[in-house]
Amino acid sequence: MIQPTPNISNKTNQQLAAPIIELLNYMHPVNPDIAAYMNAHIYKCSFRKGKMLLKSGERSNHVYFIRKGAIREFVKEGNKEITTWITAENEFVTSIGSFDLQVPAMENIQAIEDCDLLCMTYADLQNLYMEIPEFNIIGRKLLERYYRDAEGRAFIVRLTKAEYKYNYFLKVHSHLANRIPLKYVASFIGITLETLSRIRKKISHPVHMQEQKNIL
Q1: Distances (CA, A) of 120 to 3, 16, 63
Q2: Which of 53, 75, 176, 195 is most buried, judging by how many CB atoms fall within 10 Å of its CB?
């Protein structure tokens, strides 16, 4: 596994965390002490398309912020890969269970485009919580947001009709619909690639789209 390489220049790091701070400010004001800590402890890293950020069985020791690129999480069932999450710019990525409990991960995390990331280690994040307790508010709000995302994922897999699954995906993840390989989208929403291809042709008709909206 490729480990992130730190930027050791304070001048280089001065504004490194700016995109993260901008995002977190929407949840709760980021005070100067938090901003300074993040700029001092965040690193740049990159992964080429197809490379693994984390493999099942490894312990997750980093949380990543996507500056550029797209990432998927997946589990393996025999020779089959089941995509459990897809995300892109301005989102955080980690194996939450593995990172939080410091245990081996169940899932794999893979770059599906060339990715430029910012990352922080588990130890540095825990120190941030301890040294600046106000950051716990931000952490709670961030976890609440991703819990809502997980609830949406659970909603998709519980829908019984493939058309409804894909229509919900378009509603929530429209920015990824024509960007992510269809095999990953099909796996993520729990249908076959052939079924997805058929649905994409059908939903181009406005009448059919209106029928699907009735459930959402």
Answers
A1: 11, 12, 6
A2: 53
